[in-house]
């Protein structure tokens, strides 16, 4: 048996086609959405991600506002750029690409919560806890959307999330337990005594630990859906948290690359368009 693919790359293309129509409708109303990015330093991975986001925007008619700072940039210089984008009416929303090497909590907190298309501002994470509407974190929502668009049942499912990071694991638990998703979630982490015993119960496994190959075939219930969110570089190659033999046991697997990574970009684009649509209604 070999698992079916949760194809994030193809789903990104589908979502871009849908969003291109919504962007065209906004332009008919005189509104052009704009995405800003703030990048500090010269990490090659970060440059690739930011470049990919701007390419996505260009394809669907969203304007790009790109601010690249040298690795020597100070906290004050980065904060000045954030202030500038907060005030720029052409900038619908923006992200501060991580890592910056600076005080990230201070940077994130300085972004106007209404322009926080990463959904990582403390106010927006607070809204998520409270169940209020606001921009949602891209990777967790992208993971849910990837399952939904492949017909994987979430309501009532036993979901095991491996990893409690602020960008994926922690918010994913909050999202999946909302009434609209209705999953039962177990959040595993480095303090979990017996990871395998938890994963074995799961209908859906989300591997977001950042430990290459931590999820192996013997841990997976036959037919389960397995999302590989981890990104590590091993010998210069992107390597996920899911061992290759999992494909022999699982019903669905998201490849890595071409799985959750492109879905993160799809949700960033979606957040931009939704903010622009909200401004059109105002
Ligand atoms: N403020 C902020 N927001 C982010 O959303 C953010 C961030 N910081 N810092 C870094 C992570 C990482 N991230 C990815 C986005 C796209 C792919 C992606 O599309 N990857 C492709 C190609 C992977 C490759 O070959 O290198 C794929 O999976 O197929 C991956 C990872 C967003 N991040």
From TrEMBL:
Q: Which UniProt keywords apply?
A: Amino-acid biosynthesis, Histidine biosynthesis, Hydrolase, Methionine biosynthesis, Multifunctional enzyme, NADP, One-carbon metabolism, Oxidoreductase, Purine biosynthesis
- Gene Ontology terms: biological process: L-histidine biosynthetic process; methionine biosynthetic process; purine nucleotide biosynthetic process; tetrahydrofolate interconversion
Q: Which GO terms describe its cellular component?
A: cytosol
Q: Which amino acids does the record list as binding NADP(+)? A: 163-165, 231
Q: Which GO terms describe its molecular function?
A: methenyltetrahydrofolate cyclohydrolase activity; methylenetetrahydrofolate dehydrogenase (NADP+) activity
Concerning Gene3D superfamilies, the annotation shows: Leucine Dehydrogenase, chain A, domain 1 (3.40.50.10860), NAD(P)-binding Rossmann-like Domain (3.40.50.720)
Signal peptide (residue range): none
Q: Does the keyword Hydrolase feature in the UniProt annotation? A: yes
Q: Which family does it belong to?
A: Belongs to the tetrahydrofolate dehydrogenase/cyclohydrolase family.
Database matches in PANTHER family: C-1-TETRAHYDROFOLATE SYNTHASE, CYTOPLASMIC, C-1-TETRAHYDROFOLATE SYNTHASE, CYTOPLASMIC-RELATED
Q: What does this protein do?
A: Catalyzes the oxidation of 5,10-methylenetetrahydrofolate to 5,10-methenyltetrahydrofolate and then the hydrolysis of 5,10-methenyltetrahydrofolate to 10-formyltetrahydrofolate.
Assembly and partners are described as: Homodimer.
Query: Can you name this protein?
Result: Bifunctional protein FolD
Annotated source species: Nocardioides cavernae
Q: Which gene encodes it?
A: folD
